[in-house]
Amino acid sequence: MVTPIRKFISNGIVLLNKLHVTIGLVSYLAYGVYHPLLAQVCNESSGEFLINQTFGSAGTSSLGELTTYQYIPQACPSDGQYTVSETVDGTCFNSTWHNVTTDHTPGDVRGNVMIVNGTNAPGTFYQQSVSSLCGGTSYEISLWVMNLLRTGTCQNPLLPNLSISIETKTGLVIQTADIGLVLQTDSPTWRRYSTLFTASTTTDEVVIKLINYQGNYGCGNDIVIDDIQLKQCGECVTEQVYVPDVFTPNNDGKNDALEIFLNPAATFNLNVYNRWGSVIFTSTSRDSRWDGTYAGAPCLPGNYSWSLTYRFDQPSRKGREYVRTGQILLLR
User: Fold this and answer.
1) DSSP letters for 238-306
2) DSSP sequence for 17-35
3) Where are the transmembrane segments (predicted)?
4) What does the alpha-carbon distance between residue 229 and residue 208 come to, in Å, rounded to a whole number?
5) Which end of the chain is least crowded, N or C, by CB within 10 Å?
């Protein structure tokens, strides 16, 4: 009985090892195919780029406050350092990097890229502010990225793990979009990543941050980036809406009704609420205005809340709905 038992155990171990190999192979193939490429793009854009960071041309040096990494003028920055250059030297770090002979920007003459050697601490490696965005309006942020580490050069390569964070100047996070792992390639390969976000209704500046969550020492975690661009998707809708802060329904012929000012191409639904949150007035027509009464009786002076939901009839805006809220002071 000893021999059959030992044979059974031995066969079981062999089968288990084969299963581990199979699982590992499947995981490897899935990992090699899967790449969380972001591809959210504007259906339509309005005007010029609000950010168009191409890193300039030959002769450009430090990026200043755009990054917390240390600038060096050499071709091969070390961990936590960066440089700005026309090309990437493929002999860096025992020839483990791609040899990149030109930047990504179309039509650029001796254009630069930002070469980043990741540090061992996860965090922001690039940030840029932009002001005067339209609250409630969509924007597209995009960039081009390349993993500098060539395939087959490291036994356990560190892959950059990137994310885009859109925040207000005061630190309120509007949206975070994960780029994920930037995979190695056999030859220099640019990848475009993009995501959409809706601007806050506050007047704060918006800060676009590029974050690397890879935080280990080792071989890899090196990237080159170019053409960071921000563009507006469609027209600025919030500039086409105005609701007064006060009205005086005292029958003197001046400001006796609550009137909203909205783009003529928009349809809307307006609700006015009392202090307990009950709807006391609703309208879907510009000719129907609140006169400060409810159920035929004058409402008391004071603040009343309102919400305005509106949409546009143009084909390019079909399906888009916007909501504005606020308060109106009723005076008699």
Assistant:
1) GGGEE--SEE--SSSSSS-SB--EE-TTEEEEEEEE-TTS-EEEEESSTT--B-SEETTEEPPSEEEEE
2) HHHHHHHHHHHHHHHHH--
3) 12-34
4) 10
5) N
Are 224 and 114 spatial neighbours (Cβ–Cβ below 8 Å)? yes
Q: With respect to CATH, is domain 237-330 assigned 2.60.40?
A: yes
Main-chain phi, psi angles of 54, to 5 degrees: -105, 0
- CA distances to 80, 199, 291, 292, 303 from 297, rounded to whole Å, are 70, 40, 10, 9, 17
Alpha carbon distance 144, 104 (integer Å): 8
Q: Which CATH superfamily is domain 36-232 in?
A: Galactose-binding domain-like (2.60.120.260)
* Domain ranges within the chain, ordered by starting residue: 1-34, 36-232, 237-330
Cβ within 8 Å of residue 93, ≥6 positions away: 76, 219, 222
To the question of pTM greater than 0.85 for the whole model, the response is no
- Which SS3 state, helix, strand or coil, does residue 1 take? coil
Task: List the chain pLDDT tens, one digit each, 332 residues.
Answer: 333 433 333 344 333 343 333 333 333 333 333 334 456 788 777 778 999 999 998 877 899 999 999 999 999 999 999 999 999 999 999 999 999 999 999 988 899 999 999 999 999 999 999 988 877 788 999 999 999 999 999 999 999 999 999 998 888 888 889 999 999 999 999 999 999 888 876 657 899 999 999 988 899 999 999 999 999 987 775 556 778 889 999 998 888 999 888 877 788 999 999 988 899 999 999 899 999 999 999 999 999 999 898 887 655 555 567 778 888 999 98
Nearest to 133 by CA among 203, 195, 74: 203
Q: Reduced to 3 DSSP states, what percent helix, strand and coil does the chain have, rounded to the nearest 5?
A: 15, 40, 45
Helix (H) or strand (E) holding 212: strand 206-212
Contact 281, 271 (CB under 8 A): yes
Q: How far apart are CA 65 and CA 126, in angstroms?
A: 9
